[in-house]
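Example 5.3 — Cupin domain protein
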Amino acid sequence: MALQHAKPGEVVHLPSLAPERGATGTAALVKSDRFEAIHLVVPAGSTIPPHHVAGYLTLHCLEGRVTLGPSDIELGAGDWVYLERGDPHSVQGVEDARLLLTILFDTPAAQ
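Solution (predicted structure tokens):
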């Protein structure tokens, strides 16, 4: 079942990783023409291949540990990083991890 995008003022619970659930739960939380928020789950040992996005990007590690390539930036629980729009990056799961990904667009994003 797909998660509906949150409405303004709506509280959304981002569950912690539970071993019995496995590392699932990536979901788009909000998508508008200027802003996108995603609850991103990255299992240990998995890789999101190199890519870039058109907007400014922030990643807040809520739980676990990941490494961002190509600069080998390591994020652990509580760490936050900002990337310029268009910066190429990849994500490698070091431990099962949950991140809050936000993207801010200068101009309306393609839907």
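Remark. The first strand starts at residue 27 and ends at 31.
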